[in-house]
Amino acid sequence: MAIDFNGRVAIVTGAGGGLGRQHALALAARGAKVLVNDLGGAVDGSGSTVSAAQAVVDEIRAAGGQALANGASVTDFAAVEAMVQQAIDAWGRVDILVNNAGILRDKSFSKMGMADFRLVVDVHLMGAAHCCKAVWPHMVAQQYGRIVMTTSSTGLYGNFGQANYGAAKLAQVGLMQTLAIEGAKYGIRVNALAPTAATRMTEGLMPQEVLDALKPEAVVPAMLVLAHESAPTRTILCAGAGTFEAAHITLTEGIHVGIGADVPEQLAARLAEVTERAGEQVPQSGAAQGTNEVGKALAARA
Predict the structure, then answer these.
(1) Are 250 and 282 within 8 A, CB to CB?
(2) Dihedral through CA 258, CA 264, CA 269, CA 274, nearest 10?
(3) Exactly one of 144, 157, 165, 186 is catalytic; which is it?
(4) What pTM value is reported for the model?
(5) In angstroms, rounded to a whole number, what is the distance separating the alpha carbons of residues 281 and 187?
(6) What contacts 260, CB < 8 A, 6 or more positions away?
(7) pLDDT digits (tens, 9 = 90+) for 209-259
(8) How many Cα neighbours within 13 Å face the side chain of 244?
(9) For this structure, is 144 an active site residue?
């Protein structure tokens, strides 16, 4: 099956360079009309210029595609709404949203100022929420939508010096989980992509040989699969260097201990049974936890 986007309209945030640029170029090359959003700031979020977004638009147009530039900050909801309206006015719909915009302000937690923590959360989490909220009514009305969150192995598994980034990136997964449930009846599928790619955010952090293997282009196929009409929903794909994996948030079978004065001691003694992964599940919703807990409690009384 060919993965094409003919007739589709996509918005890609943070698309003025690096991975976002590759996303925008790939969607356009496969037929999508693309609104290229980029604040044009530095890696830490300072500064702004629309020139980065316009350069990508020029590339797309030179190759025969259709594209528009937008310099809105994803932290500004009114500007994000105007961005979405720009796409609607030009092309009549929005089918795909790729939440790629992001910044870094890395420091160990003990040295990190809370302003830097908040700003990273605002860009990554609130930025994604703003964009989702702005496209949502249009996707509901047309009974179709594909949203791709950009999460990270830092959010999924942690990384020294990135408490702010990791918190924001895992929060995007939580947003994905609920939006996928709420969007199902409207034909809206929501997924997350955890890329490993050499961009200006990773310059100087890895040996050049490793950076050469981690070309942003190698991540793009995962985005295309998650943004296509055949996409799954509530899937976390990991991608880098041409390798693709899936991450899952699971729930173990657990044990029933009951209620009593010595339950803390019993739990401590049997913690290995609680964390045993045999028989674990990937819950279809948060209700699975309560269902498992109550079920075991009722069974114990029988």
Answers:
(1) yes
(2) 60
(3) 165
(4) 0.93
(5) 25
(6) none
(7) 787 888 999 999 999 999 999 999 999 999 999 999 999 999 999 999 999
(8) 14
(9) no
